Amino acid sequence: MHIQLIEASQEITAFVLAGGQSRRMGTDKALLCYRNEPLIQYPIRMCQSFTRDVRIIGDPARYSCFALPVIPDCVDSQGPLSGIYTALKHSPTRHSSIAACDMPLMPGEFFRLMLQKLPGPDAVVMRFRDGAVEPLCGIYSSACLPAIEQNLARGWLKITDLLSQLAVTYIGEEELRQSGLSRKIFTNVNSADDLKRLED
Questions:
Q1: pLDDT of 24-55, one tens digit each?
Q2: The pTM is what?
Q3: Which of 30, 90, 111, 195 has the most beta carbons within 10 angstroms of its beta carbon?
Q4: 99 class by beta-carbon count within 10 Å (0-12 exposed, 13-18 middle, 19+ buried)
Q5: CA nearest 102: which of 141, 58, 68, 69?
Q6: Residue 156 included in any domain
């Protein structure tokens, strides 16, 4: 694999979120096998294509086998928002990339596209034509921490609520297409049927 790491001026820490409860899958989807590898191995390798510092947010007892730093949620797990909070609290860099464990088709090129938008915004995420966003494949800065802390305290757990409070730069579908990428890269695995469709 050709490794093209980012420049020092774009220093970033990458976090793979593996702490979900996988209710629809019925088991730990991060460790499910996809093309002879655990599903989580794909975002790990993708992150390693643009930064040397890759960490996992999840249970250390479960994910230490990947030979990366594994950080448990630093607050009671309240879904992806607490995972992002834990990542930013432990990040040694101002900006952190967040990648869900269930997007095996996501390429490093998409994160390099987002990195081009720094250092200005608090966050960079994908927004589709219908207005839907993909917040679990984005870049967040430490400037997001006060808003996240406030939202967690209030029980406001939707990441879209958080984004409405931040200065966000959105990647649109046209820019995605111009970069040679398609919406397919955001395919995620939430059920056994999803995994089977990917393997077909």
A1: 444 678 988 888 899 999 999 999 999 999 99
A2: 0.90
A3: 30
A4: buried
A5: 58
A6: yes
